[in-house]
Write a structure and sequence with these properties.
The complex is a heterodimer of chains A (354) and B (263). Chain A is 73% helix and 0% strand. Chain B is α/β, with parallel strands linked by helices and 263 residues long. Chain B is built from eleven helices and ten strands. Chain B has a six-stranded mixed sheet, with helices on both faces. The longest helix of chain B has 19 residues. Chain B is globular and about 65 Å long. Classes of the chains: A mainly alpha (354), B alpha/beta (263). Chains A and B meet through helix 1, helix 7, helix 8, helix 9 and helix 10 of A and helix 2, helix 3, helix 4 and helix 5 of B. The structure holds adenosine-5'-triphosphate and magnesium ion. The site of adenosine-5'-triphosphate has 12 residues of chain B, from strand 2 and helix 1.
Amino acid sequence: MDMKRSYYRDLRLFDTWPLGLWLVVCAALLALVPFFAGNYLMYVLGYIAINAMVALGLNVLVGYTGQISLGHAGFFAIGAYATVLLAKAGVPIPLALVAAAFIAAAFGFLLGLPALRLEGPYLAVITLGFGLTVENIFAKAEFFGGATGPSVPPFSLSLWPGFSREQNLYWLIMLCAGGTILAIRNLMRTRVGRAFVAIRDSDVAAACAGVDLTWYKTLAFAVSAAFTGVAGGLFAFHLGQVDPTTFNLMLSILFLAMVVIGGVGSILGPLLGAVTISLLNLKLKGLKLADFEQIPLAGKEIAGFISRHFMETGMANIQFIVYGGILVLIMVFEPLGLYGLWIRAKRYWRTWPL
Amino acid sequence: MTALLEVEALEISFGGVKALHGVGLTLATGEILALIGPNGAGKTTVFNCISGLYRPQSGQIRVAGRDILGLKPHRVAASGIARTFQNIELFRHLSTVDNLLLGRHLYLKTGLFSGMALLGPWTPAAKEEMRHREKVEEIIDFLDLQAVRSQRVGNLPYGTQKVVELGRALAMEPKVLLLDEPAAGMNLEEKHDLRIWIEDISKLFGIAILLIEHDMQFVGELADRVIALNYGECIAQGTPDEVRSHPDVLRAYLGTPSAEVKQ
Ligand SMILES: Nc1ncnc2c1ncn2[C@@H]1O[C@H](COP(=O)(O)OP(=O)(O)OP(=O)(O)O)[C@@H](O)[C@H]1O
Ligand SMILES: [Mg+2]
C-alpha cells in the first residue's frame, strides 16, 4: 500500500466508514427537519445544538487542555451582547457572529493570562469571578440595556427560499454546530490540539519539547471562548431576547456539568452531555406537584411529602433537586460520563455472538 | 574541538540547601558524557537548570556558543536540547505516534485555522502531518516500537514507556540529548537494546549525549567521560575507570551500596 495514503488513515474524519455513514445520515436528517417538523421540535433541537457548541468549546479547555472554568456563562453573555449590538448597528448577522467569536476570544486571552500561574481551585475562583463580573456589568450598565437587556433585532438572514424565521434560524444554528464539531475534531488531530493535550498530560514534558506553555494555555482559553461566544450570539436570537440574569453562575456550572456528565476529552462526550442537560432543563422546567402524583406506586405519598415539607416559594426549586439527583446518579454509576457508557455499549455489541 | 554544551559554575539552592555549588561541564559534538553520584547529589538538578525548568542563581550555560541561561524551556528546546525524565513524563493519553509527533512540534507549522480546516488529504495540514509522520515512522522503526505504534502509552510496560520517551526526544532532532537514568527499571535485555541505541544515536546521528546513570557497568560501556557529583559539587572527572576508582567517589558511595560502584 502507498505509505502516504496509509498515514492519512489516522487523519481521517471518521475512523470507520459505517460510522461515517451514520454521521452523514444523522446530519442529513437534522438538515431536513425544517421541511417536516414544527417549530417546537426545531426550538428543542436548536437549544440542544447551542448547548452542544458551548460544551464542545468548554471541553477544549477542560477536557483537552486540563484547565477549569466556572465563568463560561461570561463568554456566552459576551457573545450574545456582541452579536445583538452589532446586528442592531446594521452588521449582517453572520459577520456579527464572527465578530462575536473574536471578541469572546479576546476576553478568553485576558482570562487565560492569570491562568498561567494558577491551577485547580485557584483557577476555578478566578474564572468564577470573571463570570460574576461580566454578568453584573451587563446587568448594571445603561449602555448594555441595563436590567432588561437590549432588544434583539429581527433575524433577517434567509438561507432557503420561503423559509420562516424559525426555519432559517434553525439552519444557521445547525450549520454553526456542525462547523464546531468539524473544526474541533480537526484541531485536535493537528499541532495545536496535540499541544493542548500534551499540556494536560505533562506540562513539563510539553515545554521541554518546545511547546510554549504561555501561548497555548491562553490560546486554549481563547478557542474555548470563541465557540462559546458564537453559541451565545445564536442563543440571543433563539430566545428572541437578552436577559442579563440568565448568564449567571448556575449557567456556568451547567456548562461544566455537560462536559463532565458527557465525559471529558472526546467529541461525543460533550455532545451527549449537552443533549442530556438540555432535555433535563426543558423537561424539568415546568415541574409541578401534579407531575409527582403520576409517579407509579408512591406518587401520592411523594406529592404529599413535598406539599407538607416545602414552602410555597420553594416549589420552584424542586426541579433543581430532581436535576441534581439525576446528575449525582449518572456520575456515581458511570464516573467516565456518558461517553464511558457508550464505549462500554460498543464493546458489548462487538463481542455479541452473531 | 569546540564544546557544544558548556556549563560553568552553576549555583542553585532550595530554601537554604545548596543543591549545586560550582558545577561545570563541557560536552563536545559526538561525545557521551556520564553524570554519576549518589542519590540527592544534584544530577537531575543540573538537567533541570539546562532545560530551563530551574533558574540557577548564578553560572553560565551555552549551546554552540549561545547563552541559553534564563530562557524558558520551550526556547531551550528550540536551541537544540532534548531530554528524558527520571520519572517518565509521557503524554499518557496519546498514542506512541502522537507522542513522537509532539516531539516534532518545533518543526510543524500548522496553526489554529489551518488545523481546523483539515478536510482531506489535499489540505496543507494533512500534507504536513503525513510528511512528519514519515520521520516519526523512521524513529519507530529504529527503536522497534512498531508493535505499540497506535497504543496509548499510559498502558505500556515501564521499559517500553522509557523507549517511547527516548523516541520523543529523538523526534526533536536535537544537537544535545539529556538522558536522566534511561536504564533504570529496565531488564537486562532492554538495557542491552538501549545501550546499542544510545551508541547509534551518538555515532550515526552525531548527537551529543549527557547521561545520568547509576548502573556503573552501563556507564563504563557507553561513556567517553564521567563526572561524579556529591552534595552538589564535582568530586571527580575522567574516564569511567579513573572515576570509578577515585577515592572521593568511593567515599561518596560508602553510605549507599558500594557494590554499584565496584560492579
Ligand atoms: N524543586 C526542588 N525543591 C526543593 N529541593 C529540591 C528541588 N529539586 C531538587 N532539590 C534538592 O536538590 C538536591 C538534589 O536533587 P536531585 O534531584 O538533583 O538529585 P539527583 O542527583 O538527581 O538524585 P537521584 O539519584 O535520587 O535522582 C536534593 O537534596 C533535592 O532534595
Ligand atoms: Mg535524579
